[in-house]
Amino acid sequence: MRTGLPHATVVVDHFHVVQLANKMLNLVRRRATATLRGRRGRAGDPEWKARRRLLRNREDLTDSQFSTMWNQLIGIGDIGMTLLTAWIAKEKLRDLLARARTTDRHRTGHLRWMFLTWCADCDWSEIQAFVATGHGNAKSEGINRMIKLAARAAHGFRNPTNQRLRTRCVTIRRARGHLHPA
Predict the structure, then answer these.
(1) What is the rounded distance in angstroms from the CA atom of residue 127 to the CA atom of residue 89?
(2) pTM reported for the whole predicted model
(3) Residues 16, 24 contacting (CB under 8 angstroms)
């Protein structure tokens, strides 16, 4: 986009940014549950019970709901602290986006600094790497997704050599167009 439209301003609407933040919060919850418990979340797990409240905004929670969620997550240990850290990051992002609509550039810059500092200070290696370098793992995640889709499409390859060849063909950019002729 920068080469074709070098003077264009990239704009992201706030709704979709918060939606992505909520998706990431849900992903953090599922990943933390799988790491801690070695399985998917169940109805009896405290982090599962808090999943809907984690997706709500702070101002939409009553004081009772907020304190219940906060205390339950603190009570379950590391997984709860991870979820609270992610939830606070989402709320700081919402504060930043709400302030960005105003003309107070100094306050917006301060909130941006607070959000990035919070993300850099937390114990998430992915966020720290992104903040430090500006690069993420989107390419490797995309390739991994394509490998999984090819494995699903293979549906029971019995020949591992053919499955590896198919996976390699799917992940090599030059060969992608030859797999599914238009």
Answers:
(1) 11
(2) 0.58
(3) no
